[in-house]
Amino acid sequence: MPRPHRLSHLLLASAITLAGVAPAAAFTPEETGQIEGIVRDYLIRNPQVLLEALDALEEQRAGEMQDQQREAIAQAQGELTATPPGTALGNPEGDVTIVEFFDYNCGFCRRSHADMTTLIENDPELRFVLKEIPVLGPESEQAARVSLAVRHIAPDRYPDFHDGLLTTEGVADESTALAVASDLGLEEDAVREAMDDPAVLGALQESARLATMLQITGTPSYVIGDELVPGAVGAEALAARVANVRECGRATC
Q1: 3-state SS class at 221
Q2: Are both 57 and 168 inside the same structural domain?
Q3: Which side of the chain, N or C, has fewer Cβ within a 10 Å radius?
Q4: 89 and 71 both lie in a single domain
């Protein structure tokens, strides 16, 4: 068994080795075995250290991802907040914009639709921009293409269409979406023709590109100020971030 001062040296050496500072070849086979034994014994006696290390790693990775997302948001700010005239919900000249990435067949998106309605009703200076990312299969892609076709040929009806389809029970697909468009007085032939318009297909590709840039992994996801907010966090949490943007220019002050 190494003497106390030698033990402290070996512990330090093991930490340096684990950190990748010193190569294993810097130690003799006997010293390497001693280091491995010391580390193993310590971890067996203190298993909570592994959990603490994993928590620290998760926190570090989350921070790195958030930094990457902030940088991506800054780079794509103009594209994120852009939407054709007449298709922004709420106040088109609002001082703060919330960008929502959603899928018409996402249950959380449907439940959080009421959050958007509440925020718009309670905040006359809020602007909402919708980005369609049909991640839940062919039916979602069909619904998104109909939706963007409606936005293309009748932008003033897009908010009503969005509300109608997102609150319709059952699977949102081409037939369901066309029925909502018909209820708004839009001709099916015109909508079908617009579904293949390069502008519609380009809008879908653009939203997918932005979602990839921001490392979005699910819907709904919101961009508020400099921050990506994943999940159906509720109207109160979204409103708090909007207030922060007005106060300090960032989603978290």
Answers
A1: strand
A2: no
A3: N
A4: no
